[in-house]
Specification:
The complex is a heterodimer of chains A (408) and B (128). With 408 residues, chain A is of the alpha+beta class. Chain A is 31% helix and 26% strand. Chain A has 12 helices and 18 strands. In chain A, strand 10 (254-259) and strand 11 (262-266) form a beta hairpin. In chain A, helix 1 (22-29) packs parallel to helix 3, helix 3 (62-78) packs across helix 4 (91-105) and helix 6 crosses helix 7. Chain B is α+β, with helices and mostly antiparallel strands. Helices cover 19% and strands 32% of the residues of chain B. The chains are: A alpha+beta (408), B alpha+beta (128).
Chain lengths: 408, 128
């Protein structure tokens, strides 16, 4: 059970675009040793990749830089160390920007970065930076739990084969990584709690890797066995949860309510990581576009068939690589509300060439506006084609993912 | 195609008895999400008795009956007895991944809430 001597690690971001004020809320709301922030998801990596293609100076989460402009002095005053993966595809660029910021603000902080060749890494690079005295550590893509495992390993001096401790911290990290999803956000039984503005989560980690999940006193939301269970089930596969530092046995986790908004996480067992790990590659897979037709009232199936035939005929000279149609029967018979009398027909097109499905596609949808089914209208005007990411898992040696270069 | 996880530590089943047809979410919570083209749907029971029922009733076949869009896909069920939970991994539900998927819910964020809204025969002993 976490007591004095525990390392208090908070989270202030579950994705790029999460609550901007969370950094300040977490620094102001109660005591912390470390504040983490997760900014990277599959889609985010693709967005950052496109930014970096346009400008080699970019490729990191600029929101984090603005949050540090607002809160770096506060963190320094409270002695809270910051660990964030906001470096994205360019941790060096973010570290440089943070050093310029701290000089401009006259705040004496030691900024370190972990480079990672755009691969998903473990927590040891973060641990080395913190042991070397860093106040702020920025990384590229590390495994989600690494933001918690790294600081805990550094603080308690864990060895690389302290499997159970590393596994315990991995569980705490998995609970924290999605912010308010651990504290009553997106919770099936949200009607039973005050879910209006959940506080972000805190893990009090003990020397043996066990922890108490909690949140700052006075914040809304809830921390119960069920809110923590919900987050443990998020984006997992088999009960052996493999990472570059440790394989965590999710089937050994013991949860117990240890007080109001306090859940103890104990008995987690870890095993050596596998020889190879799955790594996700995000590549540009062409372009997509879509248009949504609203079909109201009678003869819904016939209306859908007509517009489908018209669009496919208009595209037949240069048909897109893929064309998908979905008809959602959201219409109700004899409805007193127009929206409730309407069904929704979506047409999604994909192609390697944005021109094929750009104006040519949207033009085809617009040109039939006075010559199609009765009541023709669209939910939004057709747009330009947008790039499509393709995710392809591949295997890499775990040792490669553990080898990383902390840089001061 | 369906698969059940290799080792399953299941609780003893409930005694058979009267049931009522109600949403699964009456007695279970859920959270779902994506990893590339794969979706996962985690379901937990709210009480020990509900777990004894859920672990035996919510099979892969039953999930595929309740969520027909998963019927043609490989679904693997993992049992987490310690969490009173089941984790269903649905391969290929999301096509090539979140950015390119054509699904209405391309990251399967609401698949769990969809599942909770489906009506099933729930033992009356769980409904007190």
């Amino acid at each position: 059970m976490a007591t004095s001597g525990a390392l208090r690690i908070g989270n202030s971001s579950g994705f790029y675009g999460d609550r901007y004020s969370a950094v300040r809320e977490m620094l102001d709301g109660g005591p912390l040793h470390v504040l983490t922030g997760d900014y990277l998801a599959e889609l985010t990596m693709l967005i950052l990749g496109r930014q970096r293609m346009k400008d080699p100076q970019r490729g990191y989460a600029t929101t984090f830089l603005r949050q540090m402009r607002d809160c770096l002095a506060l963190a320094k005053d409270h002695g809270v160390r910051i660990v964030s993966n906001a470096g994205g595809l360019n941790p060096a660029g973010l570290a440089t920007a943070l050093r310029e910021l701290s000089a401009e603000l006259g705040i004496d902080v030691h900024v370190a970065r972990v480079e990672g060749d755009d691969l998903m890494l473990g927590g040891w690079g973060i641990a080395e930076c913190l042991r070397a005295g860093a106040d702020v550590v920025v990384t590229g893509r590390v495994t989600d739990a690494s933001l918690v495992v790294g600081p805990a390993a550094a603080h308690f001096g864990w060895a690389r084969d302290d499997w159970d401790a590393l596994a315990g911290a991995t569980v705490a990290g998995h609970v924290l990584e999605c912010g308010a999803q651990a504290t009553g956000g997106n919770y099936s039984f949200f009607t039973e709690i005050d879910a209006r503005h959940p506080g972000f989560p805190v893990a009090e980690i003990d020397r043996d890797g066990s922890s108490v999940i909690t949140k700052h006193a006075g914040s809304a939301g809830a921390v119960t066995v069920e809110t923590v269970t919900a987050q443990l089930l998020y984006e997992i596969g088999e009960p052996r949860y493999a990472g570059p530092d440790v394989t965590t046995r999710f089937d050994t986790i013991c949860l117990e309510q240890a007080g109001p908004d306090r859940v103890a996480v104990t008995q987690v067992r870890g095993e050596p990581p596998p020889e190879t790990l799955k790594v996700s590659l995000n590549t540009l897979g062409g372009y997509r576009n879509q248009v949504t037709f609203v079909l109201c009232g009678l003869d819904i199936d016939a209306k859908a068939a007509l517009v489908r035939e018209q669009i496919e005929a208009a595209l037949s000279a240069r048909p897109p690589r893929e064309i998908h149609w979905t008809l959602a029967r959201t219409d109700h018979p004899d409805a007193a509300v127009e929206e409730e009398a309407s069904a929704v027909l979506r047409c999604i097109v994909k192609d390697a060439d944005p021109a094929t499905i750009g104006r040519a596609f949207s033009g085809a949808a617009v040109e039939i506006a006075l010559a199609s089914y009765p009541g023709f209208h669209l939910t939004a005007p057709p747009d330009e084609a947008s790039p499509v990411g393709v995710y392809s898992p591949t295997a890499r040696a775990s040792t490669l993912l553990r080898r990383q270069a902390p840089t001061s | 195609m369906t698969r059940d996880a290799v080792s399953e530590a299941l609780p003893a089943p409930l005694e058979p008895g009267a049931t009522r047809r109600l949403p699964l979410g009456t007695v279970a919570g859920a959270r779902s999400g994506d990893k590339g083209g794969t979706a996962n749907i985690g379901v937990w029971a709210r009480t020990h008795d509900a777990w004894s029922w859920l672990a035996h009733s919510l099979t892969v076949a039953e999930l595929q009956r309740l969520l027909p869009e998963t019927a043609g896909l490989t679904v693997t069920r993992h049992v987490l007895d310690n969490l009173h939970a089941l984790n269903f991994v649905v391969d290929g539900l999301l096509g090539e991944g979140v950015a390119s998927s054509t699904r209405f819910d391309p990251q399967a964020k609401a698949a769990g809430e969809w599942l909770r809204s489906r009506h099933v025969d729930i033992p009356e002993t769980l409904l007190s």
